[in-house]
Design goal:
Pathway: Purine metabolism; 3',5'-cyclic AMP degradation; AMP from 3',5'-cyclic AMP: step 1/1. It is an enzyme of class 3 (hydrolase). The chain is α/β, with parallel strands linked by helices. The protein is 46% helix and 13% strand. It contains 28 helices and 17 strands. Helix 12 runs antiparallel to helix 13, helix 13 runs antiparallel to helix 14 and helix 18 runs antiparallel to helix 20.
Length: 715
């Protein structure tokens, strides 16, 4: 059969002509005839306008499709037309394929159609279902579906237009058809049908075909992988899971995970902890004991990730489990590891790098043999986890050095590891002395001015500094070594459309340090304050560490959001003309610290509750006063993060010149400090309308004065 002399378009855009007796285009007679020339040889559909090859626009040989993180290349689509005889409908699809740039083959009989499909594996098969006397279309569809290669093929049935519109499509669906096409010979209708198939069913089938590669990766993975539904029904386990746990896949699929035997070595509340974490969409990672089919318990490093699906809801849970090949000599050691994996439950940050840094407790013994064995045990635990934090890299290096070191050196390194485990790496430690306890309390009260956050968001005067940089935040960071993913997220930070939530995700809820470094650099804050980028980085880390991540709104992400908005307005040309650099610097710093240490309660709540903060600030702008005061306390407490320390410059020359410098720069610092305090205090909502009215008046009065002087327009 042929469509208008059986025109077939090759991948190189060469037109083929098949004779009338040909049932398939598998072996056409190749010519270099263009589509325009073919009009002279055949009888194309009336009213069809054929462009010459020089003016036709065709699709490229392949297109790119994004499937999650995968980038796939789609080759030119292949279409098989199965019509017993040539008519206007088959010609319509033929010309539509040419217009769409698809490769088209034709077949007259079921045998030739099946043979052509098994050879070329077409993406779309269109079967004539209008005339049952020629061949059985449904039987042909079943034959094609019987071939395993047809799993991702889209099959369309062309049916006759009926007077009744209530005919069911289920017989076609049961036969294996994907779609029904009601007879219509219009070229554009056929063309639009092909386009819908390409971007609908064919594209979806192409993505499903790509899933085979993902399943292959899962099957070959050495880690045990388990996938469950949102109701914790097991949907998939890979061969590694079967090998480790001793179960067969058929024994687990469709079974509720609660029906699988559990190990008694886990703490009673561990499952509740895991469920409370993953149900809110947070990832959980930690140590978990599982029971194998033979009844043995196995210690595993488990990572459970919720998968968000339709409707933005959790639809699956993916668990990756890796056995910990420890000696398991003492239950006490195992319990300690498990307890450490449950720290910071509220924020659900169960990360291997934290446990890795804590597992080195086993090296603290001073015994010779025991110390060596515990070092090996600690080393095994650390290397069995996926650790990337710099502090754990240091610990790994120290552990490796201990293996070949003499005992005095190994014991000294044990002490180093003990120090590294603490979170007070930058806080001075004073040696304890036997002295009067009353004197100690009095001196301690005079020396400390920190605040300790208690449950219920109440505050008491503390006897030690509570605000320290967590160990996982003390990492080398500058504009030059910001991770690529974070840098890419901040590319448009000077735009109003900048998405702070994406930055929060990319930085693992630490957006303030990264965004602060970039914004402060853009406005030359370090140059103005005469401080190094290292000092600025330390200051940003301290400030961000004192924002509570458990606070759902007034956290460091909110601070970064306000900093971005402030920088956006400061970047406007008319604003620049009205402000000095000291005003810009004050605004950026105020935006950064304006909600530091926010307890998640309002001023009214604190006043009514009689909190220490409300008493300290006389029930007036309680939180705003606390934010401003604490910001300067944190800044000036440590020289390493004091960004203001160089504003009072020392001059080793004439005494008069010295006092001139001191006067200028002290006044500059006081001006900056007062501006920061004023801006933070202005965030109190009871003063909102007062400040807005003052701002409007400050704009309207100069404009009115200019108009009076004859200036009608201010640019």
């Amino acid at each position: 059969m042929g469509c208008a002399s059986s025109i077939h378009i090759s991948e190189s855009r060469v037109v083929y002509h098949s004779g009338k007796e040909s049932e398939d285009s598998n072996s056409p007679n190749q010519t270099n005839t263009t589509a325009t020339q073919s009009q002279q040889q055949g009888n194309p559909v009336p009213g069809l306008f054929i462009k010459s090859s020089s003016t036709s626009t065709y699709k490229t040989a392949f297109t790119e499709v994004q499937f999650g993180p995968m980038k796939l290349h789609v080759d030119q689509l292949q279409v098989l037309l199965v019509f017993a005889k040539e008519d206007s409908q088959s010609n319509g699809f033929c010309w539509a394929c040419e217009k769409a740039g698809f490769r088209c083959n034709t077949a007259k009989t079921p045998e030739s159609a099946l043979e052509s499909f098994l050879e070329k594996h077409h993406d779309i098969i269109i079967i004539d279902h209008r005339h049952s006397r020629n061949f059985d279309a449904e039987a042909l569809c079943r034959s094609i579906r019987a071939a395993t290669s047809s799993e991702n093929t889209v099959i369309v049935a062309v049916v006759r237009r009926q007077d009744r519109e209530d005919a069911s499509v289920m017989p076609l669906v049961n036969a294996g058809f994907n779609r029904r096409y009601i007879e219509n010979t219009n070229i554009m209708t056929c063309y639009n049908e092909l386009l819908q198939l390409e971007h609908g069913e064919v594209r979806a089938q192409f993505k499903l075909r790509a899933c085979n590669t993902i399943f292959t990766a899962l099957e070959q993975s050495q880690e045990a992988i388990e996938i469950t539904s949102e109701d914790h029904v097991i949907q998939y386990v890979n061969p590694a899971y079967e090998s480790i746990m001793g179960y067969q896949q058929g024994e687990l699929l469709g079974k509720d995970i609660t029906e699988v035997p559990k190990s008694e070595n886990n703490k009673a509340d561990l499952l509740d902890t895991i469920n409370s974490c993953i149900k809110i969409g947070k990832e959980w990672q930690g140590i978990y004991y599982a029971k194998k089919k033979n009844g043995d318990s196995i210690q595993q490093n488990v990572k459970i990730t919720p998968v968000i699906g339709q409707g933005g809801k959790i639809r699956h849970y993916v668990s990756i489990k890796r056995p910990l090949h420890d000696n398991n000599k003492a239950d006490k050691s195992s319990e300690r590891v498990q307890a450490e994996s449950q720290t910071d439950i509220q924020s659900c940050k169960h990360k291997d790098r934290r446990k890795g840094s804590l597992d080195v407790k086993s090296t603290t013994s001073r015994g010779s043999d025991g110390s060596s064995q515990r070092r090996h045990s600690s080393m095994a635990r650390i290397h069995s986890m996926t650790i990337e934090a710099p502090i754990t890299k240091v610990i790994n290096i120290i552990n490796a050095a201990q293996e070949s070191s003499p005992m005095p050196v190994a014991e000294a390194l044990d002490r180093v590891l003990e120090i590294l485990r603490t979170t007070e790496l930058y806080s001075p430690q004073f040696g304890a002395k036997d002295e009067d306890p009353h004197t100690s309390n009095l001196v301690g009260g005079l020396m400390t001015d920190g605040l300790r956050r208690l449950s219920g968001n109440e505050y008491l005067l503390a006897t030690k500094h509570p605000h320290h940089i967590p160990s996982h935040l003390i990492t080398p960071l500058s504009l030059n070594d910001i991770p690529p993913r974070v840098a890419q997220t901040m590319e448009n930070e000077d735009s109003w459309d900048f998405d702070i939530c994406k930055l929060e995700g990319a930085t693992i809820k630490r957006p303030l340090v990264y965004l602060g470094l970039k914004v402060f650099s853009r406005f030359g804050v370090c140059e103005f304050l005469n401080c190094s980028e290292v000092t600025l980085r330390s200051w940003l880390q301290v400030i961000e560490a004192n924002y509570h991540q458990t606070n759902s709104y007034h956290n460091s992400t909110h601070s970064a959001d306000v900093l971005h908005a402030t920088a956006y307005f400061l970047g406007k040309e008319r604003v620049k003309q009205s402000l000095d650099q000291i005003d810009e610097v004050a605004a950026l710093i105020a935006a950064t610290v304006h909600d530091v240490d926010h307890p998640g309660r309002t001023n009214s709540f604190l006043c009514n509750a009689g909190s220490e903060l409300a008493i300290l600030y006389n029930d007036t702008a309680v939180l705003e006063s606390h934010h401003a005061a604490l910001a300067f306390q944190l800044t000036t407490r440590d020289e390493k993060c004091n960004i203001f320390k160089n504003m009072e410059r020392q001059v080793n020359s004439d005494v008069i010149l010295f006092f001139i410098y001191i006067y200028i720069y002290r006044n500059e610092y006081r001006t900056l400090r007062q501006a920061i305090i004023d801006m933070v205090l202005a965030t109190e909502m009871t003063k909102h309308f007062e400040h807005v009215n003052k701002f409007v008046n400050s704009i309207n009065k100069p404009l009115a004065a200019l108009e009076e002087n004859g200036v009608s327009k201010v640019k």
